[in-house]
Amino acid sequence: MIPLLHHFSLVEKKLPHLRLSACATPVEYLKEFSKTTDSKKIYIKRDDLSGTVYGGNKVRKLEFLLADAKNRGAKRVITSGAAGSNHCLATAVYAQQSGLGATLMLCGQPNSQSVRANLLTMHATGAQIRFCPSWEQLSQSLENECQKLQKTDGVSPYFIPPGGSSPVGAAGFVNAGFELAEQIRGGDIACPDRIFLPLGTMGTAAGLLLGLKAAGLAIPLHLVRVVPSFIANETAFGALFSQTNQYLHDLDSSFRIFTVNDEDCFFDHSQYGDGYGVPSSWGEVVREKLFGLEKIVLDLVYSAKAFAGLSLYASNFSAKETLLFWHTKNSKHLPERLNSADYSSLPLPLKDYFLQ
Ligand SMILES: *Cc1c(COP(=O)(O)O)cnc(C)c1O
């Protein structure tokens, strides 16, 4: 049984969960990289290996989101993101595996090899792909699509917000906090002084902070923002943290109410660079360095920027510390059946990514 449900029996009875992952994910020591820093011990939490088919941070959220969708009798889930969204891809893969349909509403983003690869894989799952011309029109486009789907399916689709960052999704990272606490107590890693992760729709970070607090650990999170600040900011973070906390408290009153204090989180804005999805030169440098030393692959949209934040921190402060990098990107090879889609049947603006 997963640790959150093991600790809170009422949560277990009321919070449906689908096992999609191979958690607990390993914690590993980055020996070669650590040697390049000033008396720091750097560890990595391998959530890149989380899923049975496709890994990364979205899997933990989907274990609760897709279970909730099924429990409510939905036939299909609908979600949204950028054209190469890892979240939309993970949703498509695991909805299909769980017997649910998936509709993905995608907005434009800077083109790249990994955007094209993700788009093709989403397409190969058989998910319905829709294009939304701008982020401003997203909520209207989603509403229109939901109405259409309700007519064709006879029931409303289950709505998953961008990044899977609802209280239900964030519960996956509350569980991750308990999982890390068990690994610390089991001796896999000394209690880290600081945990580094990228900050997008914030469900990962808000859930993790809540899980750590509930497991009795006070470890500051160093959150490296990679999306515009109107999406990721302290106010919205606090709100998601509290909603998730209230949701779990309502399921089981022995899950206490916690508060976010100044020392809990450091919001690092230094790596955002020229925008979401635009690689930064620092990100490219650390990506190459980490691959050379440890054979760990980072993506340029999220994890390379977060690792650049860690790198900068490690070189600026000379105290001996144990740092943990939470790896959020998928690094599993996809099965053959998901490697063979034809871009020519994608909606037109998305097809353009392959024609430039
Ligand atoms: C979605 C994503 C994130 C951000 O997680 P949030 O919960 O949205 O903050 C980080 N890294 C990768 C690789 C992602 O795909």
Describe the structure.
With 356 residues, this protein is of the alpha/beta class. The chain folds into 2 domains: 3-56 and 166-327, Rossmann fold; 58-164 and 335-355, Rossmann fold, CATH 3.40.50.1100. Helices cover 42% and strands 14% of the residues. It contains 13 helices and 10 strands. Helix 4 packs across helix 5 (86-97) and helix 11 (281-294) crosses helix 12. Bound molecules: pyridoxal-5'-phosphate. The site of pyridoxal-5'-phosphate (PLP) has 19 residues, from helix 5, strand 7 and helix 9.
Q: Give a short account of the largest sheet.
A: 6 strands, mixed
Regions with pLDDT < 50 over 5+ consecutive residues? none
CATH class placement of the largest domain: Alpha Beta
Structural class: alpha/beta
Hetero groups:
pyridoxal-5'-phosphate
User: If you compute it from the alpha carbons, what radius of gyration comes out, rounded to the nearest whole angstrom?
Assistant: 20 Å
CATH topology of the largest domain: Rossmann fold
Task: Give me the CATH architecture of the largest domain, please.
Answer: 3-Layer(aba) Sandwich
| Beginning-to-end CA distance, first to last residue | 48 Å
Task: Based on Cα principal axes, name the global outline.
Answer: globular
